[in-house]
Write a structure and sequence with these properties.
The protein is α+β, with helices and mostly antiparallel strands and 209 residues long. The chain is built from 5 helices and 4 strands; from the N terminus they run H-E-E-E-E-H-H-H-H. Keywords: Membrane, Transmembrane, Transmembrane helix.
């Protein structure tokens, strides 16, 4: 029952932790997509109105470039001024039959951004933290149970050994060996002592059956 309880803690902890992580990532992904959508909406409006877009709402989330067939370029003003690490973006390039071109660059999912959003969300963070605590409790409880089980098994083995062999058997056998070794020097006394030791051992073993 106790082992089953520890397993419940572990499984419940993993489920809560996974739920917290999933919830926080979903929130992060939705907010990121909303920022990209806001940037794209502003860019499309500037192209339709044939106006220069000086800035976009979330420049860190990506940028867009539209090149007309005549060679006119639409983007936002800081794209060609600031150095950009292209490896941080996922990109797409499309050319129309009229030779108009579109370049789309959106910021990849970032672990640092996700952790920041995760810590800002108390609900998701609390669920994940509760899951970790339950998981840790389950692991510790299981380790305690295993330690207790080993201790009980050790005591059982000791009792079995005590039940199988008479107490002080080793000392008596050494005395018997000494009596046998000295039988040539003191024959009668040594034989009598050996018999007495063997009788004591046999009586004690019979009493344990």
């Amino acid at each position: 029952m106790k082992r089953f309880l520890s397993l419940i803690f572990i499984v419940l902890g993993l489920l809560l932790f996974g739920w917290g992580i999933y919830t926080s990532f979903e929130i992060y992904a939705i907010k990121k997509q909303e920022k990209i959508n806001a940037n794209f909406a502003g860019f499309i409006l500037s192209v339709c109105e044939n106006k220069e877009l000086k800035n976009i709402e979330y420049p860190d989330q990506g940028f867009f470039i539209f090149k007309t067939a005549e060679g006119k370029i639409f983007t936002y003003g800081q794209v060609f001024q600031n150095p950009t690490d292209i490896n941080m973006y996922s990109s797409y390039h499309k050319i129309s039959p009229t030779k108009a071109e579109v370049y789309i660059y959106t910021r990849k999912y970032n672990l640092g951004e996700y952790i920041e959003e995760f810590l800002k969300n108390p609900t998701a963070f609390g669920i994940a933290l509760a899951g970790l605590i339950l998981f840790a409790i389950g692991i510790v409880y299981m380790l305690i149970l295993q330690s207790q089980q080993k201790s009980i098994e050790g005591k059982i083995v000791e009792k079995m050994v005590e039940k199988t062999y008479p107490q002080g058997l080793e000392k008596r056998l050494k005395a018997l060996r000494l009596a046998i070794a000295t039988h040539r020097i003191i024959p009668k006394e040594s034989i009598e002592e050996a018999k007495r030791i063997l009788n004591d051992i046999l009586k004690e073993m019979e009493g344990r059956k």
